[in-house]
Amino acid sequence: MTFTAPVLNYAQLAPMLIVLGGALIGVLIEAFGPRASRHASQLFITVASLVAAFAALVRVRNQSSVDAAMGSVGFDGAGVLLQGTILIIALLSVFLIADQENFTALAAAVPGSSEERESLQLDLRVTEVYPLTLFAVAGMLLFPVSTDLITLFVALEMLSLPLYLMAGLSRRRRLMSQESALKYFLLGAFSSAFLLFGVAYLYGYSNSVTFAGIQASITGGSGNDVFLLLGIAFISVGLLFKVGAVPFHAWSPDVYQGAPTAITGFMAAATKVAAFGAILRIFYVAFANAEWQWKPALVLIAIVTMVFGSVVAITQRDVKRMLAYSSIAHAGFLLAGVIALSKSGLDASIFYLFAYGIATVGAFGVVTLVRDSAGEVTDLNRWSGLGKRSPLVASVFAFFLLAFAGIPLTSGFIGKFSIFSAAYETGSTAILIAGVLSSAIAAFFYIRVIVLMFFKDPVEDGTSVVIPSALTTTTIAVTSLITLILGIFPAPLINFIESSAFFIR
Amino acid sequence: MSANPYIPILVIFAIGFGFAAFSVGIAAVTGPARYNRAKLEAYECGIEPSPQALQGGRFPVKYFLTAMLFIVFDIEIVFLYPWAVTFDKLGLFGLVEMAIFIGTVFVAYAYVWRRGGLEWD
Amino acid sequence: MNALTSMMLLPLLGSLLVAVIPSDQTLRIKQAALGTTLLVAISGVMAWFKFDSANTSFQFVQIAQWIPSFGINYAVGVDGLALVLILMSVLLAPVVVLAGWNESEGGRWSAKVFYILILVLETMMIGVFAATDVFLFYVFFEAMLIPVYFLIGGYGSGERAAAAVKFLLYSLFGGLLMLASIIGLYVISGTHGGHTFDIGQLSELHKFMSPTTQNLLFLGFFIAFAIKAPVWPLHTWLPDAAAAATPGTSVLLLGVLDKVGTFGMIRFCLTLFPDASKTFTPVILVFAVISILYGAFLAIGARDIKRLIAYTSISHFGFITMGIFAMTTQGHSGATLYMFNHGFSTAALFLVAGWMISRRGSSTIADFGGLQRVTPVMAWSFFIAGMSSLALPGLSSFVSEFLVLVGTYTRYPVAAVIATFGIVLAALYILIPVQKALHGPTTPGNENLPDLNLREKIAIAPVIAVIVALGFYPAPLLNVINPASAHVLEVQGFTDPVPSESAGK
Question: Which B residues 90-119 touch A at CB under 8 Å?
Fold first, then answer.
């Protein structure tokens, strides 16, 4: 057996390496930096490495190769678009995370203990959240460009593990936050096991772990189809868990509600982009020729996900839970793009991911602003009359909700149109009908929140909208602006996606 | 004979399961059953669980830290072995990569050290 | 600049102007809004004179690429049909602003927001009639809902929030069905010569559709329009919305917005799906006749003035729908003229009713009595509006109702004969309130009601003038409408059963 030194394309891997480097520096700052300046330096390092990674990505945007890292990482147009989306979302989320009011002072302190009181008095900060964010971002960057199953699994773990921790960092209602972290971890580990199980089956089927090898085996038709089906099924379970598709959604309402809101926004937006990126790649590249084996099942899952998410969201009384169910419904819409299995499906999915991710970060950004003396107020009843108290914040939130509902002149409408037309183009009439009907149902609960904010009188219980910090303001302003611009002038982005989105095989 | 490669796997699986079942079963049948206080403790590694958890049954979190640290270095060794074996062929590339790898591990180590993870009390 | 585009931009600029005026300068805001709507009305009249009625193709055409990847254009243009409706909209807008000078005062928000919403709505009203790109039409069609929603919910009376939500949900549901059909059209156009939304090119597409496809796509459009128009049994949102909205909003809602439904039936249902239109004609005619009679019966039984007017509108929309689906030139010309006339007679009814209600502090018909003696001008205005609504010869609605009935009779005599009963019922539902509220002895509580002031007289005068003038001399409008109606029918191969009878007498 001979060994040859691997050849790595460092330019193409640079975005990930920069983010990882930033994370390591962050850990060192935690170890050696003086406590007082940690927050500022962490924030600087995080923002700087995200910006640098984005710049590195822009530099190589026109390159593509299957060999960025010995066939384990495929670098192509779709990968660049997805990585860029993740970096933008991450940067905007970091601005929200920078508002440390949301985070516990000392994560290790038992809730209600004397250590916790002491840590609050000392005004400690969990600045570890920044390196954790960067580690998660690095995993997310790797996830949609992995072209073999091992890398896919490593990337999945790399993005998941920091998120499990970050979910438990809430400053208020800490038990709930920790419960959500544990729930997320246990179910996440469970789904990772499924994924790994599927990897084993696919290896058994094709004698290869690379997407190209699996695709070749499927085309050749030599292997045992039972292994292929089991492999696809188990891998799908693992990936669908991450995007919160029914019936693998059970974690998401609890985690969305328990996690600090800034983290929820980051998780909801960026994880979805990364996971759907990976799903798109694996289904478009590895499983494309086994279309008839998985399409019926995926169509069913997509329809159930749309309808379930929309229907259950109606009964929610908590704004974060409502957004969680709405994100489940959107996962269903996004699956329509996977099912389309066409160029227009890919374009539409990437546009939708960008539009949805941006709007989600913005919406959660607004949620962080509504507080009372005990922290954020997420009970929808207490959002009554928000439009009277602070018309601007309420209008912005209403605008995001309209974008989620897919009303014209918002990015959500263009996304919805393009993804459903792509699905219908390849013959999925059922998806189109289910999508339209569940959009109608979903409109109901989005509008209910608007009614609550604008047409109900305020309740006098100390709920108020805080003056947002400059960074939070930036995030909310940028996200709402992008949502509006993509609704009115989507052509530049659509053209860009159309001309550059493809999967290298 | 497409299923052929899997028959050995099945056989290994059967042997493994059989061995486990046999060991557990034979210990219960032939082993002496003389219990004392130490044997009934939750953690039988030579160290008394300390400090005692209030309701009993919970390990001090410090063991967890130790275990994690052990894994960090364990994994480092796992990677060092194959690298050492193929050192010649990988050349300078391998050396640099390994230096980076060890550096990364030391970042984690430094964090644990500075944040008091190595202090027992 | 293109006449239509500048007409759409003007109100938008006006809304910006209103937005920069400080909120406390209410008078300035109102003046700015009135000035803008007057300017738009003037440019509308100018477009009217520049329009060449002999030319049946679209005029004032402007086409610019919007989202080229999907074949979506910003494409505007008008034929006689659209021009008439645009003229009606821009003439009604200043009347509404002037008549409802103080309407914004009972609202949740300031007058500023009210006039911004009105002006934005005006832009969209023009756009929805002017769009010759189906996608652009849909964008206006849906986006229009949002300002109306806030106008009803924010400035209405009574159960305004509930009424606004009901209105929005009904409309969104219809809109989403239409979206499904639009996606269907888009995909089919992609397989026959490239993606397009151009109404001209799409009108050729029905030749390639199977009857089932055509029927389904037709239904998607038709249900959306039938909700908007509203046709029985999809009308239940209208009485609530009209009763809750301010009189000015009701005028825009019933006078203009609902016309989009009947306009859409001609422009989209008939033009895009001629075969399906024929298939469904019998069913639709039954619904139309039921609307006529059902609306009339409800109106007779109504105790609330605003609800009464809303029910009469359901009856009138039945006539319009019947005229459209009779597929004769007279029927179409009559229906189009009816849309115009209904706009003005409903405007007169709602505005006068609004003044009566705000003076008396009650909207129950039984609370009024003997207004003829106390407030002669107001009473006469209401009387003339009412007479126009029951289609008294010599007033505008008579001509259109007559044309619709004649046009229907030549092909569907039974429907026409049954619909004629609607005229008898109309006499009842108008004369009963006229007799109760205007004539007879002055009942307690009405003795000291003030008559119309100068502003109100100025506002109502042009509306009454149009009603009377068009009753005697409808030729200017019919000269524009007739060629357009004939053209619409001719293009898709509908022929009149009695070819020699000309409508424009």
Answer: 90-91, 93-94, 104, 107-108, 110-111, 113-115
Cβ within 8 Å of C, A 450-469: 451, 454-456
| pLDDT single digits (tens) B28-64 | 888 777 777 766 666 555 555 555 555 555 566 777 7
Helices then strands, each counted (H, E), chain C: 22, 2
Structure tokens, C456: 């109100």
Counting as low any pLDDT under 70, the low residues of chain C are 497-505
Confidence at residue C409, expressed as pLDDT on a 0 to 100 scale: 87
Domains in chain B (CATH in brackets) are 59-121 (1.20.58.1610)
- Residues C369, C489: Cα–Cα separation, whole Å: 48
Q: Using an 8 Å Cβ cutoff, are C205 and C192 in contact?
A: yes
How is residue B74 written in tokens? 């364990």
pLDDT at site A348:
92
Could you give the strand order of the β-sheet that contains A464-465, starting from the edge strand earlier in sequence? Answer: A375-376, A370-372, A464-465
Q: Per the CB < 8 Å rule, is A454 touching C150?
A: yes
What pLDDT sits at residue B17?
93
Q: Which residues contact A380 (CB under 8 A, 6 or more apart)?
A: A316, A317, A318, A319, A322, A449, A452
The count of domains in chain A is 1
Looking at residue C8, its amino acid is M
A255 part of a folded domain: yes
For residue A304, the enclosing domain spans 10-500
Half-sphere exposure of C469 (CA within 13 A, CB side): 10
Cα B37 to the center of its chain, rounded Å: 27
Whether the CB of A187 is below 8 Å from some CB of chain C: the reply is no
Averaged confidence pLDDT in chain A? 88
* A409 backbone dihedrals φ, ψ, rounded to 5°: 75, 10
State the CB neighbour count (10 A cutoff) for residue C327: 24
Count of beta carbons in the 10 Å neighbourhood of residue C455: 12
ipTM: 0.86
